[in-house]
């Protein structure tokens, strides 16, 4: 297998892991534990479903791990197409990973307080979950930012369909706008949800393309040998 295709498929596999862990944590686990308007109920659920709460922390850490590795591998994949844009993907992705890492620490603190109460445990747990959610909210700014150079690299490299590149750029812009709308006009949450739809479609299209095809066949024929993605270095035996 050509090193470029291998690198693309590895990137796609990690990106798929990021998508699955993100959906699992935010849409399946968190709603079963956090009650927005009832701190007492949130505390009771954490105590009753401690194993689920700890699983949520592990899933959050999995988001961090896959986000960081995907960011680095996107740089490795696209650095010959546009080094600045590829570096931007890595930088923005790593910043978002740090935001989610902080969220995971807050969730871990919430479980600690719930299982070993200190002071007003219900209020403390509720505050920790609210802060965790806001870290996801503001961190989404950098998630939107990483889609724009990602789309640009697709366009510059010509290794994937051009409509995919434009969809990723548009999705990134929509993601950025949705972040501001959620805080400036919370009553317009439906508009914010609609704005992230292009990014969702673009991401899953990209993941599917990376996993199934890697890059377009003609890209390998046109790629000079000295710009091919090199294999990872291996340590020689003495």
Q: How many runs of DSSP E, i.e. beta strands?
A: 0
Calculate Rg over CA atoms.
20 Å
Unreliable spans are 230-238
Shape: elongated
- Report the average pLDDT across residues: 89
Span of the ends, CA to CA: 28 Å
User: How much helical structure, as a percent, in the residues?
Assistant: over 70%
Secondary-structure-derived class: mainly alpha
Order of helices and strands: HHHHHHHHH
**Portion in beta strands:** under 5%
Tally the helices: what do you get? 9
Major beta sheet summary: none
Q: Mind explaining what this structure looks like?
A:
The chain has 238 residues and is mainly alpha-helical. Helices cover 81% and strands 0% of the residues. The protein is built from 9 helices and no strands. It has helices at 3-33, 39-48, 50-78, 83-115, 121-157, 162-184, 189-195, 197-212, 217-222.
Question: In brief, what are we looking at here?
Answer:
The chain is mostly helical and 238 residues long. The protein is built from nine helices and no strands.
List the helices and strands and how they pair.
Elements: H1 3-33, H2 39-48, H3 50-78, H4 83-115, H5 121-157, H6 162-184, H7 189-195, H8 197-212, H9 217-222
What features would you highlight for this structure?
238 residues, mainly alpha, 0% strand
